[in-house]
Amino acid sequence: MSDGNNEKILVAGGAGYIGSHMVRVLIEAGLDPVVIDNLSTGYRDFVPGKVPFYEADLREPGVFSELIKTHHISGVIYFASHIEVGESVIDPLKYYDNNLISCINLIRAMKENSIDRVVFSSTAAVYGDPECVPVKEDAVLAPKNPYGRSKMMMEKMLSDAGTAYGLKCVILRYFNVAGAFPGGEIGEKHVPETHLIPNVLKSIKNDNCEFNIFGDDYSTPDGTCIRDYVHVVDLCGAHLKALRYLEGNISGIFNLGSGKGFSVREVLETVMKVTGQKIEANVLDRRDGDPERLVASIAKAKDVLGWEPEYGLEDMIRTAWKWENNLC
Ligand code: UDP
Predict the structure, then answer these.
(1) What pLDDT is recorded for position 138?
(2) Are strands 226-227 and 262-263 parallel, antiparallel or unpaired?
(3) pTM higher than 0.90 for the full model?
């Protein structure tokens, strides 16, 4: 239990899938999270009742500053963004408006209150279709959609703020995040759900066991796209390491994945193994904007942050399945 003197960390977007896991990982590490979330895609009941919670729109000027002052915040972990690729293509302004204005407000509040540590949630989408895999952090940034572009712009704003105001930022570029807290009390809950692992688990839970694969004519061994999956709890562990790294007063950029690629069909095989259910896969056309192959080089996160994932794909599916079965 907190004695009230622990370090206070502001978790922006702490009621979402990854943010709510982060809150639990911070508590386990003896830190005190304070959550701000507009609940546009997050859930109030994902945040433990004892954690200070504020429902607010981060585009409102002054919101961050007030919280930083009230709670004597010493560092920020920033998840609050719109993240749906398809939606960003249809409504780019929603992405630029929400993601960029919130980030500007964050930087302004940190500058005004002399807070200089932020861990920022970015994405492999900033690389677009990478020229070679595994992808290293110095690969060309060529996002293919407004979501990826908004994240790239936020990265650049934070970096400029570093040069101008001394803000220190660790940018974490996530590959495919999956799995759930092992107890099954929180997990992935997007409406609509578009991601591979929750979608295939839902198809089993809904008893039709039919699943759509988006394209099997890619230049990969079985023709389906390859992705690099990382367990959400491992991912949050990397954020803790990033907070510690920032104490050395240096910024950095790190890819977070497992360093291993799995095709869509390999994921389906693993789901069948873990759940014991058979899945009928229909092959549809390719989904617009899907890169063929995304696998992270995690050498830098290993060497510099001392981080390495502990959970494998089966663990991700097992914990996600437990969560899925807890959902109504
Ligand atoms: N995918 C699929 N069927 C689905 C959802 C996803 O075949 O119902 C494929 C998708 O085309 C991609 C991979 O699974 O090749 C991972 O997609 P996801 O949306 O989970 O993550 P992304 O890599 O797009 O962020």
Answers:
(1) 98
(2) antiparallel
(3) yes
